[in-house]
Amino acid sequence: MSEPTSQSDASHAEQEPSGSTSRRDFLKIVGISGAGAAAAACSPAPPAIHQKLIPYLVQPEDITPGVNSTYASLLAENGPEPLGVLARVRDGRAIFLDGNPDYPLNQGAMSPLGLSALQHLYDPDRLQGPRKKAESGFQEASWDDALAALGKALGDGDVVLLSGAGTGTRDAFLAEWAGAVGADHVRYESFDYAPLRRAHEIAFGRAEIPDYRIDRADRIVGFGSDFLGSWLSPVTFGRRIADARRIDEGRHARFTFVGPRVSLTGSNADDWLKARPGTAGFVALAAAHVVAARKGDARSAALQGTLSAYTPEWAAERTGVPADAIRELGQEIAAAERPVALPPGPESQDRDATDAYLAVALLNYVAGAIGTTVLFAAGPRRGTSATFDEMKALAARMQSGGVRTLIVAGPNPVHTLPASCGFAKALSQVPNLVSLSSHMDETTAAASWILPSSHELESWGDAEVAPGAWSLGQPVMQPVFDTRQREDILMGAASSAGVQHDFGADDFAGYLENAWRERHAASRSGRSFDDWWFETRKQGGRWEGAAEGSGASLSDLAVSYRFADRKPEAPGDKFDLVVYATGHLYDGRGANRGWIQELPDPVTKVVWGSWVEMHPDTAEPLGLRDGDLVEVKSDAGTVRAPVYLYPGIRKDAVAIPMGQGHTHYGRNARGRGVNPLDLLSARSDAATGSLAYAGLTVGVTATGQKGRLVKLQGSDRDYHREVAEIMELGAAQEAIRGHEVDLTELVEAAWDSDPMSPYRWGMSVDLNACTGCGACATACYAENNLAVVGEERCAGGREMSWLRVERFFTETADGGFQTTHLAEMCQHCGDAPCEPVCPVYAAYHNPEGLNVQVYNRCVGTRYCSNNCPYKQRRFNWFTYDFPYPLNLQLNPDVTVREKGVMEKCTFCVQRIDRAKVQAKEEGRLVHDGEITTACMGACPTDAIVFGNLKDPTSRVSKLAKGARRYHVLEELNTRPAVTYLRDVTHAELAHPSEEEGETESAATQSA
Ligand code: SF4
Questions:
Q1: What angle is formed at CA 718 by the lines to CA 943 and CA 774, rounded to 5 degrees?
Q2: Which of 182, 609, 613, 678 is the most buried (most CB within 10 A)?
Q3: Beta bridge pairs of residue 98
Q4: Of all atoms in ligand 1, which is nearest to the CA of residue 765?
Q5: What are the tens digits of pLDDT across the range 736-769?
């Protein structure tokens, strides 16, 4: 019994037999193996793979079948931050993406969106060649015809090139190309940073994005942006906040989050100040007032006139945050040695967004953060994007017939702009709409011609990720489909149009190399370009020129600045609306990736859909329960989605995530969930024109129907059963102070392997470091060929994830809650309850202490799963599909399981074996740190550590002997090989009496 999942689509014309590699695929793969090498060796744009089905006659020197090659590259267009990656390529196909450890931003770590770029690359729904619109839909076309059509359109005049907002040579090329053909070049990204830049221009005369060094801070305040999820540089910030709170090293910066809902970022904070949407800047302004009054230094005196009116009482009236709480926050910031404040982000932007960002900038100034934890000339570089108002102006120009040819090269504005912008409607007035997108997205669906561009991992590119730090992107394999590098398409079109312009090269690879020749000359390295270039490609860029960062002086404008006063009206019987981006789906570009749809949202744990967050106390009188379908209505539109009851949102607000609600884009995205941008009217920041996501009220009405709300977590609480442990800061410090780690002593779990074996593999997970981002879970999907089962099966509790990140709440003394994220996988128990109940010995203990599953023996009784107290075993009820070309991503080192087989985390046994073989060849044991499991490698916070428990000095052994150690459900005496380190909070926890604990426990059992 095999049935298609949501990844499969029987009607898909290009679908091939899935789950295994057919002979034809194999020939393709072997045929393209040389291309991976050629790409790395600087070849021009390679031909599509189906044009070259030639097996090797002469084996390329650097390709050994069955052995991985690694190519450094760059994902600049995949999400909020450019990520340097090392693509693991096997037999010509990329099968895994590691973070590039040398790359200055992500430093080896990844995000779920970054890891899932492979599913974008191998997406069966990618456009597979040029298409021309006909009456009956799109028809296949040749590249010659497509380029000729685009060339002809260029001759029509009034051409606009709409591209993403980049920073490197690709962006420079697009600008040069637009100049050469006489086109206007508009750059557009879903989230611009215009108010952030403008605020710093007002404050310090520097229209920059500064570098927020939260790793150096001893007091952190977030004024609304989801900087650990979707804003600016989440992977970088993940590492930095973990570094700022390494309690075992004596650091634990207190973190306060200000905003209407507890986002992923807010869930990692110690305190939550519940400001109304769009008002966090008022809290920052009042905090700056308090800091300035307390410090009374020269910086404070300079801003005396600017800040004097904004008292905590003034802010309390506008934000809903008590004045005392704001005053206390200001006092704490003033008392800190190295405080840092982070700005509001899109979800907190109202019509005075620039003022809100400026308030945070001035708070950083009076607190002394500028030059210590907030640095200029070193911040992340992001291209400048057209603002909402500028896109509205473009839409108006289109509507009036002022654009004859629109070339959309990357963005998908029909989905990422509110309908109130008028962009989608205006497209019908453009005679020639040409899309260079890789997917049939909402904008592309309106095109007359589609010239599909290659994926980033099939293309050349670069980016200046920070001033002086250049990352290089190179193709790591041949294009999967008949696509071309975007810039080569444009060069071809210009040539077809007879444009006489010398780009200095015949193709973009040459153009990019020329740009790097200039960088080589400027570097004065003293080495030949060929050597220098080879090394650059090998390491993925040049970062030695990165600027150190500096402070900035207050501008005269800031001294005389007058903030606009605004007092938002109470929503009355309506609700304040919060529209926010998640780190997974981002602006919707992750929506057709099965790994992303099936990865639980880090806050709500919902998969495959949209929801409307509402506080339980608000829902009760309305008679609403989890999953009830409601209608949310604004002046601009209406959406319907199920309610999600969440104590982490203000009682007068509702929140809806972005990213879903696609009408096109592919089988996993189309028709799923809602797009909350439909609710937004055409409001923008008065100073910059950036879209105002906040400041709207909506009506919410029950429909009397049930919606589909699929959550992959049962209880939000562990009911004091030692599952997700959290301790107060004082207790943690005391425990650590009096604790010494004996480097000669073995931990108990070390004895649970064969006495003759030198190894007992174990893991530690630091809950204090873990932010709940989910990169570990996604990496596990990529490495271990995990099946995506779809919404229906998830609703039935049949997800196949080997690692789940659970989210638990613990009550605090003030009636709030603290969130603990718990990454949980097979615990590889010494006394594993799954082993003795298997009738066929499929679950057994190997000599190295691993709890092993022999797929070939498993007969599917599922006794092991019933007996696993950690619920970490997954049963294959079906043989799941990996529709072509997704099957090309499968890791050949790992078996693809079929129906009737139980599976679970193996600690990446294939990586363990590889390291052991290597060590054996060299006549030694495996070194500590030599094995990195997939989850450990992806984790931005270094929360996961793997190693040998039989080595008492190994890192994992030391952590397993640490002061914060515990085992989940320890009283069961299963002797897990996974040690958890307790979460730590500055908040005061509610300590239930024994009686209360028992009552809670009984309540759960009866539930
Ligand atoms: S353990 Fe997993 S969820 Fe936690 S920070 Fe690391 S990658 Fe993210």
A1: 35
A2: 613
A3: 86
A4: 1
A5: 998 999 999 999 999 999 999 999 999 999 999 9
